Amino acid sequence: MCRLRGGIGGGCAVTSPLLELSNVSLQFGGVTALSEVDLGVEEGELYSIIGPNGAGKTSLLNCISGRYFPTFGTISFDGRDITRLRTDKRAAIGIGRTFQNLALFGHMSVIDNILVGRHHLVRNNFLTGSLYWIGGAQKEELEQRREIEEIIDFLEIQHIRHATAGTLPYGLRKRVELARAVALKPKLLLLDEPMAGMNLEEKMDMARYIVDLNDEWGITIIMIEHDMAVVTDISSRITVLDFGKKIAEGVPEEVMAHPDVQRAYLGDDELEEA
């Protein structure tokens, strides 16, 4: 594919991936969670990371989001080295995140939870805030609210916008957490098991939202998900981890047919019986 991001003139320019991990390793004492992982995610991709339990998938997302710093290796985002950048600084440059375990403020309303995702986008200072009616604060607040309502409409949560987040069913809380991550206006959205614990209908809805965020909103997405039917159906490429190492990468059909991937999921004995 010819990519012109950062290019000049009419020709094709070779560009680096939006996100690039080089030789990333992560150790906790004598335990190696990740070992020499290389990864490149192009702008506009819907990229999935899969693997058995304990393969290092969430550890990899934690390194990308800044929750962990890798023991070795480098991480670049949009041409910038972010290996040692704090989590809040990564959010400010466009890396959003949802979690395997819900991280909502249960006592707050849905709309207030979503507004938390906008805090780094607020430009007004104390002076302009004190001059609310004659300064830019009122206009900014109206714009923030307009964009929040657009997200609420997109994720079809209009009917719960004023509900207390902690009182909602699990599937709706997952949707609210996605809304808060989208409110950050991310270039890259990290989704850690967005469909875990959902029934079939909820999974179908969530898959549709994720695809539309990628296709229509132009958000690059990295997703960890255990539902292989969903992963193979919506992903542009897949990386497979096993015991902290990358064992395969490519388009879904190639990856799922890879003998090392089948061995990681099924085991040698089951492969021999098959």
TrEMBL record:
An annotated Gene Ontology molecular function = ATP hydrolysis activity
**Ranges of residues in domain ABC transporter:** 19-268
Q: Cite the PROSITE patterns for this sequence.
A: ABC_TRANSPORTER_2
Coiled-coil stretches: none
Keyword flag Nucleotide-binding: yes
Q: Which Pfam family, giving just one, matches this sequence? A: ABC_tran
GO CC entries? plasma membrane
What are the alphabetically sorted keywords of the record?
A: ATP-binding, Nucleotide-binding, Transport
Keyword Transmembrane helix among UniProt keywords: no
What is the name listed in the Swiss-Prot or TrEMBL entry for this protein? ABC transporter ATP-binding protein
